[in-house]
Write a structure and sequence with these properties.
The chain is mainly alpha-helical. Helices cover 52% and strands 4% of the residues. The protein contains six helices and three strands; from the N terminus they run βααββαααα. Helix 3 packs across helix 4. It is elongated and about 55 Å long.
Length: 162
């Protein structure tokens, strides 16, 4: 905890080298974190270079703190960032459909639900088409989803997750 928050110059955009210097990380680490953390998604300019914004730098600093100081695993840090994001915007927003399986437990931070909410935010033309109208089939699918969630929680528990 000897380090203080990095001094971030007031700019609109930062190149990867600047972000590395500000956050004391290497470019390959930032690129890897981009692949592991959907919250870290810098835009690219016309020449294909990554351009980070202040919020991206704040995310890098938070990821680094979770991994190195608080000793989270990558999966745990990803889950923590998702929880913080949900808490910041308030749970139960328009993308939450309230479908939480047969158990009736709120599971908005469950990986399956996070993926579902991300899919719901996709433009209509890239959302998968699911046949509807057969209540029996939908009930079977809901039961199967609840069983998958239960199995995933058991695997996470066995592997030492939450």
């Amino acid at each position: 905890m000897a380090k203080t928050a990095p001094e971030i110059p007031s700019k609109l955009f930062y190149k990867i080298g600047e972000v590395c210097e500000i956050t004391d990380t290497q470019p390959y680490v930032l690129r890897f974190w981009e692949s592991e953390f959907p919250q870290l998604a810098p835009k690219k300019n016309r020449s294909g270079q990554r351009v980070y914004q202040r919020k991206d730098i704040d995310t890098v600093v938070r990821i680094k703190k979770l991994l190195y100081e608080e000793e989270y695993t990558i999966a745990g840090a990803r889950r923590k960032l998702d929880e913080e994001h949900l808490a910041a915007r308030g749970t139960g927003g328009p993308s939450d459909d309230g479908a939480n399986g047969a158990s009736g437990e709120p599971e908005e931070d469950h990986p399956v639900d996070l993926l579902s909410s991300r899919a719901a935010r996709l433009p209509r033309e890239v959302q998968p088409e699911l046949p509807t109208g057969d209540p029996e089939r939908e009930a079977r699918l809901e039961r199967a989803l609840a069983e998958l969630k239960k199995a995933l929680r058991e695997v996470q528990h066995i592997l030492g997750g939450e």
